[in-house]
Protein 1
Amino acid sequence: MKDKFYTYIQELQDTITSQLEEVDGKAKFQEDIWKRPEGGGGRTRVIENGNVFEKGGVNISGVHGELPKSMQSYFGVEDADFFACGLSLVLHPKNPMVPTVHANWRYFEMYDKQGNIVDQWFGGGQDLTPYYLFEEDAIHFHSVCKKACDAHHSEFYSKYKKRCDEYFWNAHRNEARGLGGLFFDYCKATPAMKMQDWYNFITEVGDSFIEAYVPIVTERKHIDFNPLQREWQEIRRGRYVEFNLVHDKGTLFGLRTNGRIESILMSLPPHVQWRYDHHPKEGSEEARLLEVLQHPKEWV
Amino acid sequence: MKDKFYTYIQELQDTITSQLEEVDGKAKFQEDIWKRPEGGGGRTRVIENGNVFEKGGVNISGVHGELPKSMQSYFGVEDADFFACGLSLVLHPKNPMVPTVHANWRYFEMYDKQGNIVDQWFGGGQDLTPYYLFEEDAIHFHSVCKKACDAHHSEFYSKYKKRCDEYFWNAHRNEARGLGGLFFDYCKATPAMKMQDWYNFITEVGDSFIEAYVPIVTERKHIDFNPLQREWQEIRRGRYVEFNLVHDKGTLFGLRTNGRIESILMSLPPHVQWRYDHHPKEGSEEARLLEVLQHPKEWV
């Protein structure tokens, strides 16, 4: 399973980066291959200063070895070995009319000291963070998520959509990071869903990413915007930074377990602003977005 | 003691804000008075878009009531009441040749259910975060810190300078946030230092702030800078954000105990950049700063 899934994310990285380069039309992903001293490594691909993408990364990694102390207490296990691999992506477009997107698909195995698998699970999801609200974009993104889910279980979409809203909640701001999508974790074998079934599910979600995001980019990338709209985008990006550095378990985990910092923090936006006590004007487009972030809704 | 110290920080806030307005020559501090529903409140003063200060705050607060659950486990106590007050300031200058500064002076009392004081302590410090290294500025700042310490104990400066270097360590970057200064906490009564002695010490440090910082601002605020230097400042400000949101106990504490978000996050810089895998050129002024941040040194 681990080899099959690692092969899958390698191919998915190729597909996604080549599709995004085509949409961008100018910038190319720059690749960094890195090794983890304790075992494994990754292939980081970063795009900067494109026509469409101001900054973004589509990264894969596969790491293994002894489970770090911090992860032992996190998982409530003693000495164990592990293997973890995944694809993580974040794209920050230049145009505030084009939403930021994040996605992650990952697989984890834990072994006893004899090398037997004692636990294994999939996790992941994808979610959209716009700066201006185009309801049809939210509906499109969520519809694609739902279609990928419905092929595997009638309740997956509603369950993982809800988890996504809960996970990407910027608690100290009392608002969502974005419009959500899917979030799932610890997807383990059950009588009804074997690991192969989970594999089929997660790869279907992975395969749906381009369909979920690229049509939105194509539709919005040519819309004109003014400096005030750009400013709003940079202020909202500040909230993205706050979520990732204060609340995001994946980011904090990476920072605390001595992950590759530059690959982890590629998620941070290129230009960001913080204003004191900033509030959009009542009745404005900016206030309309905020309203939806404060009260997550059903899109499909 | 609590009334005396609260009166002191009120007056210190007035002194500092009026001195800083004079240095700035353009922007004025805007004041927000806020109440904490559970008891107490604060006076937030923020300056934005000045000649010198792009963004900054000089805030006081005095809060009291039942010790929140999260603080109970933090301090290892059960039901208790508390009083906490302090002055916190952060100033982000526009000109990258002028350093950012942070300072905080605070007092804490804990009570049993009969209202008796069961514990009390002072804490605080002040530290400098430049974007370009002027060694004479570091020496000046640390000399003023040392002078304030030496009047109270011959070992305070070396002890609290070291604690400052340790506290403001951006562990995931393996570098200091800035050039340090002083950091002390849990300053409690001992046979050698009564609470009044600690009061004398902390107010001497508080009184030294203007002398420690303002001459540096006056000296550097007229130096010309170019867009590349400004860019470097914005990238370094990213590290400041990373420290405050990932490592700073005070910030995280405020966010988790439902503090006033806008007063807590006034510490975040106005314009910030994140680049992928950014490194200054070997032998450059930027690399010289980094070298000192990676290897904190003795300035006096």
Protein 2
Amino acid sequence: MVNPSLNRDATIRTLSNILGLTVSEITLEQSGAFVERFTLPPTRSGSLDDLTFAVKDLIDIAGHTTGCGNPTWLATHPPATVNAICVDQILAAGARCVGKTITDEIAFSLFGENHHYGTPLNPAAPDRVPGGSSSGSASAVACALVDFALGTDTGGSVRVPASNCGIWGLRPSHGFISLAGVMPLAPTYDTVGFFARDLNVLNRVANSLLPIADPAAGPPTVGAIHLIKELFALADSAVQNALTPVVDQLRHTFHGKVRETSLAELCGDVRAANPATWLTIYRVLQGTEMLSCLGAWMESAAPEFGPAPSVGLQFVRSHDRSRVGEAIALRELFCRRLNGALGPHDLLCLPTAPTIAPLKNSKAYDRNSDYYIRTLPVTAVSGVGRLPQLSLPLGQVGTVPIGLSLAAAHGNDLLLLNVAKQFTAPR
Amino acid sequence: MVNPSLNRDATIRTLSNILGLTVSEITLEQSGAFVERFTLPPTRSGSLDDLTFAVKDLIDIAGHTTGCGNPTWLATHPPATVNAICVDQILAAGARCVGKTITDEIAFSLFGENHHYGTPLNPAAPDRVPGGSSSGSASAVACALVDFALGTDTGGSVRVPASNCGIWGLRPSHGFISLAGVMPLAPTYDTVGFFARDLNVLNRVANSLLPIADPAAGPPTVGAIHLIKELFALADSAVQNALTPVVDQLRHTFHGKVRETSLAELCGDVRAANPATWLTIYRVLQGTEMLSCLGAWMESAAPEFGPAPSVGLQFVRSHDRSRVGEAIALRELFCRRLNGALGPHDLLCLPTAPTIAPLKNSKAYDRNSDYYIRTLPVTAVSGVGRLPQLSLPLGQVGTVPIGLSLAAAHGNDLLLLNVAKQFTAPR
């Protein structure tokens, strides 16, 4: 089932259908999205004047200790003395910060169930998880408690909650939004991303943070839009059915430009057709980087983790670190090939996730669960390619949201956002 | 004065001229390059078999506490539990690690004079500084104590010591060598780089760490080589004179391809012609990122710093953080324009530094000293553009080395290294 009008307010209607509430009636307490509430006024006036935002508790706010979703982290780190760069950028563009939101522990889960701080509400599907690790930021936006929110995305931590909660979520091109003041997890994949209910708001935030427009350049033109066969094939049939009318609409809007393409063709390598290849590249590099970034703290502080990160960490520690070079070699080969194939004009189209949000307490966080084995290859493609990816909240399985994603070559965030605007413009 | 034969062993001859020693006679103690000596055997056999290397003490080695050049840092951090990713890559390629080398405190100087741990020997100019912040790694290579060494380069910390010590130094494209397990200083500029006396060795290390070659692609072809007018103009006349015959040789090797070009032309913006523009972009973003990365530790641990970082930190704290967005906007504009102008075939050519190594104890570390005001705009261009830059040890002012640099578009490290190989091949 898809919302045939591709209306930007689909989420809000879905929400009121389910909860029998208008969005404005969801309280802070019902959302459970925040770990801390405060007000930081804007430092200047600008393109984000009058907007409010929230910040994932993995990103520094001066005077507050960034908790990273874990009480031991909170207790073993000093307060931030300055804001993260991305927060200073947003405040200087006119927006008002209203608090910090729950993250999965050390950003290491796609579920959004924090053992210590709870599970933020997914207002579009209250019996289901919001998705993680940027769970509170997605919830705060979906519950209309803020206009937009900052999250981080290493392996899907913005895209998956955006899909689950039925909101827009951008993972920008790797390396453009500063990570200074953000907990490092896996630096060659880490990005700061953001959520909004409204594409115009998302665009305004993108223009503040990235910034993406060259005043001397014309608007980018759209070439091919490649529907990635292997990633649609990984999706549940209900998800495939839900996304079919959205894709049909995409074909209609960009007639003659939408085609089915294989990852093997784009990468010029048969190994790219196998989801397990992407899973391995992502996991080996993410896991080994994570231990380099956080291993010393975990060893010295001996934090108590909930079951989801504990299971994940066992898995991470099993990697043979002398093999990391092989994962890097394949990652860089696929990254070069993908970016070469996309060039300045082409896009990928893929399901944001292969399934709708799992039910709460499903305990599917084993790293070899069907959920992870199918989701990570889908999210890994943009990670490996350093591509910007936008999740569009345009699909529904029954009343439960599912995102369709577009991705572009590294640095082409503007093309991506322009295509989304063109696609969803009223006709 | 330039070594007219462009001989790769220029450094070694210079050294023996000055010290009256052959390189192999310089002892560990004379070099003062190491903070710690140990042996880590390779984990596999590969393309770096039989080579030895050293690691800047900003990069993790399992079981050792990374000291970052400051005793308080050493005392307030737990030992690393795993190696940094780049170290694991190198060990798996067959090289043997022989120890950790001195860094300037928190990597925040271009001089290489560490108040706590001393000044590593610049064997090519023993009365002058080795350059920093990767001072010990440059010294260890220049003294022939190792075949190559890992450093980091945020604002010149590999390129400047390579120039000062008369060795090869590569700052790779931003974002390709993992920074996991490396102290973050200013993430949108931070890179892991490396030094060697021999270009073949440098190439082997580059192929292990990056990796840069696509087996399906042919060798890259060279288009234009742009001599950057504004940056040559910033150099001392002695440096200009020293580099002239090297540039003449470049014109001879790549006849018809070498031309004088302005940064204003490459960036399509008159502001780019002013070195102060590059200085400001670099400093505002580097300084604000640095406080986001290290401010909380500095506040809570109250480290004792030597005079050079202390003076620098006063300067860093003076930035108005609400202006960081303006620096980012200009940085991204220039980055896009530079990369667009270079494309897949063209290169920049610039002096690595505008001066030879300063004399030791010159106390020129005030951030508004002539040294910093002229050096940072030269090193900032590749930082802002995310460009790979190679310093070639081909110039000499009297007997003191000065590097000539080539830079390429982001991701084109292979082009850069191939051009250097072609340039220095025996004729």
